[in-house]
Amino acid sequence: VVDHAQQHELESAVITFSPHPDLVLAPERAPKLLMDLDTRVGLIKQAGIEKVYVQPFTREFASMEPEAFVKDVLVTRLNAKVVVVGFNFVFGKGGRGNTRLLASICQEFGIILDIVPSVRVNGQVVGSTRIRNMLSLGDVSSARTMLGRGFALKGTVVKGYGRGRLLGFPTANIAVPDAVLLPKDGVYAVWAFYRGQAYPGVCNI
Fold first, then answer.
1. Do β-strands 51-56 and 13-18 pair in parallel, antiparallel, or remain unpaired?
2. What is the pLDDT of residues 168-192, one digit of tens each?
């Protein structure tokens, strides 16, 4: 996206959705998230993206036909000249829109479409489901390789039972949002970030 923006002298932007579509359409199968929304937006901006649009995912939005999504959102609202999506991108009512249909609609509106192929690490396609499985097994090393960064948790420090203090090792109890995935129960070597400073630490999940 950044490369296309520079090449065509455009503003780079990303559309992301919140909450996760399954949380609205099929709550019983909604996966835990790899990060909260603020972290996601921050990482997108760190990649050089100038604007991030968070589209509220509602049943009304999910019922939008693929053609209407391109016309109303990409063309009318965003005036998109180049669109970049992943190889398995689906959109619109019932997931009817795929990359083939998107290519046809983009051609109609004179939009350049760039479909990004799958990314593989050690022969495996990188994807959120695979990363979640790794974290659920406690394999943070493999998850790190696929994420391209260390897995991180963010939350608010809350009052606990004070047991660590009694043992001479005061702890910071972090309340992580319910929607965010926790790695497998265990003890992990971590970096703790607080007010711009990094501290080596130990984390008990």
1. parallel
2. 888 889 999 999 999 999 999 999 9
